[in-house]
Amino acid sequence: MSTMAKEQEFQLYNSMTKQKEIFVSKEPGKVGMYICGVTAYDLSHIGHARAYVAFDILFRYLKHLGYEVNYVRNFTDVDDKIIRRANELEEDPLALSSRYCEEFLVDMVDLQCLPPTYQPRVSDHMEQIKGMIAQIICNGCAYEMEGDVYFSVEKFPSYGQLSGRKLEDNRAGERVAVDTRKRNPADFALWKAAKPGEPSWGSPWGLGRPGWHIECSAMSAHYLTYSFDIHGGGMDLIFPHHENELAQSCAACPACHVTYWVHNGFVTANDEKMSKSLGNFFTIREVTKLYHPLALRHFLMSTHYRSPVNYSIQQIEIASEAVYYIYQTLQDCEDALLPFPQGSQEGSENGKIARITPAAKDCISKLRDDFETKLSDDLHTPYILNAALQEALRFMNSSMNLLKKKQPKQQQLSLVQSLTELEKEVKKVLSTLGLLAGSTYSEVLQQLKDKALKRSGLTEEGILHLIEERAMARKNKDFNRGDEIRSELAAKGIALMDVGKETIWRPCVPPEQPSLPGQKEQPSVPDKQEEQVLPVST
After folding, report:
1. Which of 85, 250, 277, 335 is the most exposed place for a label (fewest CB within 10 A)?
2. Looking at residue 114, what DSSP letter applies?
């Protein structure tokens, strides 16, 4: 474990106990974590991005603390939704789901989510699933009926402990119609008898396929045993999915225990619920077509992971601006340090070793303390992004301004050393947050500018032409035209910066706009089943 881990206690909110608790792993130095993955039948939406960025931060932070993390995130590749979509496209269900599993992985790479230790698929774990169902039946908590197997909630007295629901209040399940053959309307399917045209596997109960919930119980037990540290997903999974998982896992193995249940909040759009029927449902690809993936990641981290996050053009623009500022500051720092050879950064004059300035030392210490304190407090990323990191970047900019001024050699070397150490600390923070790209600073800045051009509908050549026109107008004292050009570009998210005798451009936040990227011009006919807050993990 790192030194920090011993000094700072990590507190994590537990949905089971409804409070923050000090994190203590079952095995010292090691963590087992299972996160419910996507049902792969379409491109992933920003609800998925919200969930997997949140748990990527948890994964990264645990590694930062020195833990060896066994992170398992599954793919559901056998499901009613997949079968329906495959039938519509006249495609093999497993082939379709495999294709969308790969597309999901592309999105995760774009969002800089680290790959989990294992990414199991349901279709590869039928033996484990059937084995667990058989054990539940053997323990008297499930029954077979005409090739279907149901979990009997009445045989599990603790049912409802995670969600807080009373048995009589529970719905009759999810993703399936009510089955009058069930002993209790709340009983849920562990195994479904085969239907014509659907993929099926042999079992002691005949041909069929698993119910939705059993897959995660079987795969988490296979990779992490029945007792592990963290089980997570979106808040929409608390009931019925995680409640049913908990019941069937404990029914299969009474010693089953998950220490921390962790759930992330919903995504809304323009303060409205996100749904296909409202026309404000869109995929990660629709956002990253116009905005840098780092901007989407930054936006998702700017709200605490357990709170609802409201998506709007204005908010993603602000996030994009924030990422540009981070990378412009780092690029400016790199440029400012170029004239000073690496060796001179710890050089000396008259035998005196150059040390960082007291102000820089305080800034680094505060950034480090804020980072550790806030992340250890249930992953409080908003404060780090909106306060601690901003303070450090402002200090870097003020130090670079001082470096440009003529001053004694020793003070100059101290500023160089201060900037060098502060840049290192900022990069450590960005790395743990997943905001440090593998590309160079200049490459990221160019990527951000390219996205801004795409949003504005302009080209680099077109902007340069307008810059020339503005310069000519100013030369001819036609300041109104010069201001018009600047305002027209600003309205399209392009800011003109007069630097000395040169004018350059950079992305900026345009005036607030009413629509969202990917919003459909003609919303589909409302469907009550779709009119819900966007699920974040299914």
Report:
1. 335
2. P
Residues 323 and 298 sit within 8 Å (Cβ to Cβ): yes
pLDDT tens string 210-246: 999 999 999 999 999 999 999 999 999 999 999 999 9
Burial level of 529, CB count in 10 A (0-12/13-18/19+)? exposed
**What gap in Å lies between CA 68 and CA 49, rounded to an integer?**
24
Cα–Cα distance, 409 to 416 (Å, whole number)? 10
What's residue 270's pLDDT?
Answer: 76
Any alpha helices (H) in 8-125, and if so which ranges?
46-64, 80-89, 93-110
pTM: 0.92
In 111-163, alpha helices (H): 126-138
Pairing of strands 142-145, 68-73: unpaired
Q: Which two tokens stand for residue 168?
A: 């009589």
Strand partners, 73: 35
Tokens of 517: 């990227």
- CA-wise closest residue to 330 among 387, 386, 400: 400
Residue 53 confidence class, pLDDT cut points 50, 70, 90: very high
Task: Let me know if 223 is exposed, middle or buried by CB neighbors in 10 A (0-12, 13-18, 19+).
Answer: buried
CA distance 430 to 297: 12
Which residues fall within 8 angstroms of residue 211, CB to CB, at 6 or more apart? 188, 189, 190, 191, 192
Nearest-5° Cα angle at 75, 73 to 77: 170
For residue 143, how far is the Cα from the chain centroid? 39
How much is the CA Rg of the chain, to the nearest whole Å? 27
Cis peptide before 210 (omega within 30 of 0): no
CA distances from 217 to 48, 116, 262, 455 (A): 21, 18, 16, 44
Pairing of strands 30-35, 227-234: parallel
Phi, psi for residue 472 in degrees, rounded to 5: -65, -40
How far apart (Å, rounded) are the C-alpha atoms in residues 182 and 247?
A: 17
Q: Nearest Cα to 262, choosing from 289, 230, 293?
A: 230
